[in-house]
Amino acid sequence: MASKIKKGDLVKVLSGKDKGKQDKVLEVFPDKDKLLVDNVNKVKRHTKPTQGHAGGIIEKLLPLPAARVRIVCPACKAAVRVGFKTVKDKKVRYCKKCAAVIDK
Ligand SMILES: [Zn+2]
Predict the structure, then answer these.
(1) Residue 32 Cα, ligand 1 centroid: separation in angstroms?
(2) Which of 11, 46, 71, 100 has the fewest CB neighbours in a 10 Å radius?
(3) Do 92 and 86 touch, CB atoms closer than 8 A?
(4) What is the C-alpha separation between 54 and 70, in angstroms, rounded?
(5) Is residue 40 situated within a structural domain?
(6) Mean pLDDT to the nearest integer, 86-97
(7) How many CB atoms within 10 Å of residue 17?
(8) pTM for this model (two decimals)
(9) What digits encode the pLDDT tens for the residues 14-30?
(10) How do residues 36-45 score in pLDDT, each as one tens digit?
(11) Which residues form the signal peptide (predicted)?
(12) How far is the CA of 26 from the centre of ligand 1 (A)?
């Protein structure tokens, strides 16, 4: 199955502590069905001081399940489901709400 969400897409979070947030997909992990979204699923990690490193609190982004986000359609600006269709022998994604083609 082709991936519905790709790196660089704008997505909206549907559930969890970051519900309602919109940001860009930084990385996709198709084998795990997870993705990394900018500013979403941020956790704080305490690091111990090491040689040459002061230690302290660092913020890290964790991948979240792809099912928890939906793509934001560039045309109608809604969080939508996408479908696939073939245009000029190329498989493209389209918005199931307004039918706009998402891939250029
Ligand atoms: Zn749309």
Answers:
(1) 27
(2) 46
(3) yes
(4) 39
(5) yes
(6) 94
(7) 9
(8) 0.85
(9) 999 999 999 999 999 99
(10) 999 999 999 8
(11) none
(12) 22
